Amino acid sequence: MPQPHDHPYIVARPAAPAAETEPRGRRRGLQAQTNPVMSPASALTRKLAARTSLSPADLEFLDALYDETRLVGANRDIITEGYKYDALAVLRHGMALRYRVLRDGRRQILNIVLPGDFIGFPACFFDTALYSITALSDAVVSSIRFPRLFQLFGEHPRIGAAIFWLFSCEAAMYAERVIGIGQRSAVERLAHLLLELLTRLQIIGLADENSFHMPLTQEQIGDMLGLTGVHISRTFRQLRNDGLVVIAGQVLKIKDLRALAALADFERTYLSHFRMSEALFPEEPG
Amino acid sequence: MPQPHDHPYIVARPAAPAAETEPRGRRRGLQAQTNPVMSPASALTRKLAARTSLSPADLEFLDALYDETRLVGANRDIITEGYKYDALAVLRHGMALRYRVLRDGRRQILNIVLPGDFIGFPACFFDTALYSITALSDAVVSSIRFPRLFQLFGEHPRIGAAIFWLFSCEAAMYAERVIGIGQRSAVERLAHLLLELLTRLQIIGLADENSFHMPLTQEQIGDMLGLTGVHISRTFRQLRNDGLVVIAGQVLKIKDLRALAALADFERTYLSHFRMSEALFPEEPG
DNA sequence: CGTACACTTGAGTGGCCTCAATACCTGTGG
DNA sequence: CCACAGGTATTGAGGCCACTCAAGTGTACG
User: Fold this and answer.
1) CB spacing of B182 vs A277 below 8 angstroms
2) Fewer CB within 10 Å, N side or C side of chain A?
3) pTM score > 0.85 for this model?
4) pLDDT interval class at B240 (50, 70, 90)
5) Residue A276's pLDDT is what?
6) Which residues contact B2 (CB under 8 A, 6 or more apart)?
């Protein structure tokens, strides 16, 4: 994957446009990333394999896991609130936002969906979707129909348990956001979000030691943290003035990781605790 | 259980307390559920049966579901953050709070756990618990060890799917709280909480048409909504002045349900949407 | 009758919001 | 090439919602 660092989150685009100064040929064409969609292991497989040991049969099953794959253009809904969906899906490529719009137009972004994350939890377990999910960039989504999901639980218990555990992570991340919005100040929330993004992007190989490409506008960050975009700008300035972060273009670099973590009360543990309890595996498979 | 009316929200107390202002013989709504503590069906079984049809074998399995049962006194932790737990548990009796305390002492209450709710999701799927759960009143907790849980998924797929769905509800409730704290004002949040409590208590038969016993102090409500207890007091006054609610003793009565729901932008659907998708059952069991 | 706890209410403060103006970048079209 | 529009970020002025601090009430309990 030899791309520079313009849009590091687009994993598979072969000819990624370099810097933002360069002229780019076509804007919203989807054709670029079609063929090498997911190289040897998908993001989901990587996430699972990092947490539990998978048998060759498991890996084979994961390779043929998806029922259908579709492309979603940037800024288009993958899931729309109120509609019915009867399959679980996985975001295999690109990024997306899960959000809800209230009657009066206020919007709350619940979380950012990264490659390898599930889409449709908890939506697909309800009769109609509770939230909308919109693609931040061109995205690739694959679906898993329920029969296959249950087959999975029956025949590949380790994968089933791991997926169970991924759902737990999802719930835990919502809970962490409740804590953040409920109790922390604007700087703390922003610092926490930056560290969360850095950590999650590192896990799937889309961030280096201390910098990453910020995929969100300041207004989106505000909608995510219960603040206004204007105030996000002021808060960023504060972080910059304190020498904690540097923003160059759309690349955000964390200059003092320890200080930022201390400010945010960020416990890396809360993401590294995201390892599966061994108790989930009372018996080893053959 | 020999104490007087000090903790009236303890479900199973035979002599339900009266409101302190008016000497009426029985409390409204609390009367019905007094003696049949957990009789014929547990709260969990009732919740499941309301959503899916259970075979006699399923019911029999549910009756013998629990591995051990223990009592927890009021104000004692059922689960403590940072410790390891290797079983899923169900709150069978009493109420509890799930919360996290930050370094500087701020506390965020994530939700209130009612009879029939799971304890230990997502805690038990991590190596150490992410949050603490403390008993509001004397409580009865039963645990389900993992082997039995997996047995359940293998041998009683309908129950397994239903439990899956309950976890989805849990995640969705966290997400709703994010939306509430992130976007709504103090009155809206409080109104929403009151309606959520009313609805959830009604489902398990602990509330009547428009009133219920408020199990939380105002400071606890504040910690739940990201506000201070003082401001909860002011907000309650506003709701009282507007003729929306009445508080007598610890019984909260909603006088104008429609107006309160409109104020809170409360969609009853968001709880009634909590019915399981039929898609979860591609095939009927025998 | 004194302590403890929850609730109420007031006065003053502060964090974040709203409104608004400006600058910048990018793509589009004259 | 420049003009223009749309989206994004920055910065200022003023306002409001919720906070902090504090005093006072009512109830429960020893």
Assistant:
1) no
2) C
3) no
4) very high
5) 55
6) none
